[in-house]
Automatic annotation (TrEMBL):
Signal peptide start-end: 1-18
A GO MF label: glutamic-type endopeptidase activity
One BP annotation, GO: proteolysis
Highest taxon above the source species: Eukaryota
Species of the source: Mycena citricolor
Keywords associated with the record: Signal
Lineage of source species: Eukaryota, Fungi, Dikarya, Basidiomycota, Agaricomycotina
InterPro entries from the UniProt entry: ConA-like_dom_sf, Peptidase_G1, Peptidase_G1_sf
Residue numbers annotated as active site: E194
Protein name as catalogued: Acid proteinase
Ranges annotated as spanning the membrane: none
Entry keyword annotation includes Signal: yes
Length: 257
C-alpha cells in the first residue's frame, strides 16, 4: 500500500459514522505487515548511513530480528490508555505483541487490544490474529482504560501457536490456539502500537498518549530470552511523524506526538 492511497483512505474513513458491529468488525478488521513510509522523514533516513529508527505508515514500537535461530514467544505488559480523536469521526489504535511481520511477512501471529474513540465514547476490544486471516475478537472479555494487560504470543510450529491475554486488574484471562497455512518464520518479535486496517484502508489514527510495554521479553528456540534494547525502533509517519519510540532492556515506550 502506497503512502498516497493510505492517506486518501484515512481522509475518507474519517467521515464514517459510528463503530462497526462485532460481526462487521470481525469480517473487516485486520492487522498487517509493516508498511514502509515514503514520507520526508523516511527519505531523510534512507539518504544517510546511520539510523536508529525506521519509519512506517502503520507500526510504531520495536521489532527484534533473530541473528540466528528463531523466536518462539514474545510477552509484554501495558496499561490501557484513553484515546483521543484527532478530528471528527471515529479514531483508533491497537497495542499488540507478535511474531513476524517485519522482515518476514508470510504470516504473523499476534494478539492485542484495540482502543477506539468516537465522539466522547471510548471502547476497547481484545483480539487475536494469524495473518493473513482477518482478526477475531475475544468476546465477553472486559477491558477499560487504566487496566493492566499482559499479552503473550507463542509459536509452536511453522504453522501453529497460541496467544493469551490477561487482565491483571480483573484477574481474567483468555487463550486461543491458532493454526494457519502461511508459514511463521520466527525471525521477528515485536511490541507495537498500530494504525490497523478495516476493509482495505488504515483507520484514522487515534492519539493514544503513551503506551509502555514492561516486562518485555522474547524467547528463542534455544531457550534463551532477550529484551528489546537491541531492537529496530519503528515510528509512524503519515502526513507527519506521529510517534516517538524508545526501548530499554525490558521495556518499549511508544508516545504519540
Amino acid at each position: 500500500m502506497f503512502f498516497a492511497s493510505a492517506l486518501v483512505s484515512l481522509l475518507l474513513a474519517s467521515t464514517a459514522l459510528g463503530r462497526p458491529s462485532i460481526a462487521s468488525r470481525q469480517t473487516r478488521r485486520r492487522s498487517g505487515p509493516l508498511i514502509p513510509s515514503n514520507g520526508p522523514a523516511a527519505n531523510l533516513i534512507n539518504n544517510t548511513t546511520v539510523s536508529h529508527v525506521k519509519y512506517s505508515q502503520n507500526w510504531a514500537g520495536a521489532s527484534l530480528e533473530s541473528p540466528s535461530g528463531t523466536y518462539t514467544s514474545v510477552k509484554g505488559t501495558f496499561t490501557v490508555p484513553t484515546p483521543k480523536a484527532r478530528g471528527s469521526g471515529s479514531h483508533a489504535a491497537s497495542a499488540w505483541v507478535g511474531i513476524d511481520g517485519d522482515t518476514c511477512a508470510s504470516g504473523i501471529m499476534q494478539t492485542g487490544i484495540d482502543f477506539t474513540i468516537d465522539g466522547s465514547r471510548a471502547s476497547y476490544d481484545a483480539w487475536y490474529e494469524y495473518y493473513p486471516a482477518v482478526s477475531s475478537d475475544f468476546t465477553g472479555f472486559s477491558v477499560k482504560a487504566g487496566d493492566v494487560i499482559t499479552l503473550v504470543a507463542t509459536k509452536t510450529s511453522s504453522t501453529s501457536g497460541s496467544v493469551s491475554i490477561t487482565n491483571e486488574t480483573t484477574g481474567k484471562s483468555v487463550h486461543k490456539t491458532l493454526t494457519g497455512s502461511h508459514k511463521l518464520c520466527g525471525k521477528n518479535a515485536e511490541w507495537i502500537v498500530e494504525d490497523f486496517e478495516e476493509g482495505s484502508s488504515l483507520v484514522p489514527f487515534a492519539d493514544f498518549g503513551t503506551v509502555t510495554f514492561t516486562g518485555a521479553k522474547a524467547t528463542l528456540a534455544s531457550g534463551g530470552t532477550v529484551g528489546p534494547s537491541g531492537a529496530q525502533l519503528l515510528d509512524i509517519e503519515q502526513s507527519s511523524v506521529l510517534t516517538s519510540v524508545s526501548a530499554t532492556s525490558d521495556s518499549v515506550t511508544i508516545r504519540y506526538v
